[in-house]
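For reproducibility, we list the full input for the acetoacetyl-coenzyme A complex.
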Amino acid sequence: MTYETIELESHGRVALVRLNRPQALNALNALLISELDCALAGFAADEGVGCVVITGSEKAFAAGADIKEMADKSFADAFLSDFIGRWDTLARFRKPTIAAVAGFALGGGCELAMMCDFIIAADTAQFGQPEIKLGVIPGAGGTQRLTRAVGKAKAMDLVLTGRMMGAEEAERAGLVARVVPAADLLSEALKAGAAVAAMSLPAALMAKEAVNAAFETTLTEGVRFERRLFYSLFATEDQKEGMAAFVEKRKAGFRHR
Ligand code: CAA
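The corresponding predicted structure, in tokenized form, follows.
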């Protein structure tokens, strides 16, 4: 399948998605979101994919939802079409995802990165939720995911002033897992992706589900949920292999089942 606004590459068990609308700093229009959804559906069904890395260009991960496409929408257009609702596919995607961010990750671009499981940032990355400058507010989870990631003080600062935050500040604040030199971004992200994709896939899916549950539930319920998942992994071939490999002092060869 060929796409107009994204490019796909396969790196072993890692699927790489490059957002590719350079003329608009990878602004996220309806076509890009539907192509991303379509690619994700393919990765979900593909047993050979164990992790997805999403990246943009050197200049921009994505500069937000496409303002030119949105500008003339009425309330009824926006509400009835629920056009942002379609972005949720990435947030609901079950396999691990990594955002590799260089340059601008603004508005919907920051929100898309935050829908991934973790963010690796180039030292050139700039994060922000500048929607307030357009007379609106974040609409793809920015007020919620940013606040959970960095806390109220910094989230309010970013959402109310619309200012940008550099990679180091973003790492200090807890938005970003690692900062790397821009030249190494893709290789570092693919290396992290390969490490994740080499793990047992059932364990990786459950690890992701359990961490995400921490944002939705109480500690007692979350710990109970984690324990159920933990015990259930003893039904997998990969648990037998992983523990046998440790005892036999060899590298585990997971079958991802
Ligand atoms: N939508 C549509 N087009 C965009 C865009 C966007 N979000 N961001 C940049 N572009 C386009 C520009 O219009 C320009 O196109 P033309 O050459 O045809 O004019 C091209 O990309 C290059 O942009 P600039 O000339 O502005 O580049 P710059 O380096 O001077 O500035 C920037 C870069 C600071 C990122 C600036 O482009 C900018 O502020 N972009 C908008 C950022 C923004 O407000 N994002 C939030 C969008 S709303 C949203 O995302 C809602 C939501 O929560 C879902």
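The pocket of acetoacetyl-coenzyme A is lined by residues 24-25, 27, 63-68, 84, 104, 106-108, 111, 130-131, 134, 138-140, 142 (CB under 6 Å). The mean pLDDT is 98. Both points were considered when choosing residues for closer inspection.
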